[in-house]
Design a protein that fits this description.
With about 375 residues, the chain is of the alpha/beta class. The chain contains 10 helices and 18 strands. Bound molecules: S-adenosylmethionine.
């Protein structure tokens, strides 16, 4: 695989995270190239505070490292990739501050570069959070693949910052040019968004779910998650449970409510998700112990330390091919579970997770199914 990106700032060796030699996907795309080319050709002054939002694998900040940009991302995987890519480039640690979407943004931004995220809600939230730091002279340039930039995307820039136009498309990528306008009054930030669950869904009936922008199914309960909530394992007592890929934390919170002695670890690679899970847990005054961790699956969880893993694997993600993520999650669960411990998985029927579970665990039991979903259980022998 060609992992070298040619940029006006030199050739960069870039990889995704976690590094996987079978991964054929590059750590940058034509929208990163287009933006960097534009900055160099138009000699855009990269002075003052340069902020890069949504850099997928760190290609943008790695190219611009000499200008001391600051990265803001929702993704732990993106942050880890950026760390490795910067180190490979020889950038001194700390020259590119790595902030998360949950951190306090800088007070003043002179150049704002936005890699448009898949989630319009996340873009809305980020632009609203950054708007107070943007001034009349801030250079604002967005970038994305043509299929990711919609009228609604441009309207967000317009509504929050000021007049916006797009470039011609090049290699199916497009740039967004926005001129901050002090007279624009950004609307109030609707995020985080909380809703109450309807009755009839087990331990979480009527409970509040808090969602930060960009979280999976942030405006309503996902139908798959709902099906999972109706078929969670019973059992009580002191046990260590992991809500793996916790999103807004509704699954782990249901377990904690039903079994106050359970210790629940909520893990997600999204900073927005882990903040949501913590907020959901707190909003419901759940008794018991919980831990909230941003990370890559079960990495860092000691082998043989967990009694139960609950998992609704991602089925589309900008960060990795879904199949690979589900496989990594199941492999991690097998390692983290104690003998006799169980992995419970919800998935669309057509995804065929039972095949993977059988290969890894030597068993897979169908707990429940409907026309769309299956809940599967695998026991660590
Ligand atoms: C289908 S959503 C499930 C969310 C929640 N459990 C639910 O059922 O509503 C999958 C979640 O996995 C997370 N995820 C994706 N890759 C991950 C990884 N490598 N490690 C941890 N979480 C990951 C996503 O951010 C997302 O929140």
């Amino acid at each position: 695989m060609n992992d070298r990106m040619t940029t006006p700032w030199g050739e960069l060796a870039l990889t995704r995270f976690p590094e996987d030699p079978r991964d054929r996907l590059r750590a940058w795309d034509a929208s990163d190239e287009y933006l960097l080319r534009h900055l160099a050709e138009r000699e855009v002054p990269l002075s003052g505070t340069v902020v890069v939002v949504g850099d997928r694998w760190g290609a943008l900040v790695t190219a611009l490292a000499a200008h001391g940009p600051l990265q803001i991302t929702d993704s732990y995987l993106a942050q880890e990739a950026t760390r490795a890519n910067l180190a490979r480039r020889g950038a001194e640690p700390g020259t590119v501050p790595l902030l998360t979407t949950q951190d306090v943004p800088p007070e003043r931004i002179d150049v704002l570069l936005v890699r448009v995220p898949k989630s319009l809600a996340l873009l809305e939230d980020q632009l609203l959070r950054l708007a107070p730091a943007v001034h009349e002279g801030t250079v604002v340039v967005g970038t994305g693949m043509v299929k990711e930039i919609h009228t609604s995307t441009l309207q967000l820039f317009e509504r929050i910052l000021g007049p916006t136009r797009t470039s011609l498309a090049e290699k199916k990528a497009r740039l967004i040019f926005c001129t901050p306008e002090p007279s624009v009054e950004p609307p109030e930030n609707p995020w985080p968004y909380a809703y109450d669950l309807p009755n009839g869904i087990g331990a979480v009936s009527g409970r509040t779910v808090v969602n930060h922008a960009g979280v999976f199914c942030a405006d309503r309960l996902d139908i798959g998650t709902r099906f999972f909530l109706g078929h969670l394992p019973g059992g009580k007592g002191p046990r260590r449970v992991v809500d793996l890929g916790c999103g807004n934390g509704v699954v782990g919170t249901a377990v904690a409510l039903a079994d106050p002695e359970a210790e629940v670890l909520f893990v997600d690679e999204s900073f927005q998700a882990v903040a949501s899970a913590e907020a959901t847990y707190k909003a419901n005054g759940v008794p018991g112990h919980a831990e909230f961790r941003v990370g890559d699956g079960l990495a860092g969880v000691p082998a043989g330390s967990v009694d139960l893993v609950l998992n609704n694997p991602p089925f589309h993600s900008h960060q990795a091919t879904t199949d690979a993520t589900a496989w990594r999650m199941f492999t991690g669960a097998r390692r983290a579970l104690r003998p006799g411990g169980e992995l419970w998985v919800i998935g669309n029927r057509h995804l065929g997770y039972h095949v993977k579970l059988r290969r890894l665990f030597g068993n897979s039991q169908l707990v429940a199914s409907d026309s769309k979903f299956v809940v599967l259980k695998a026991v660590k022998k």
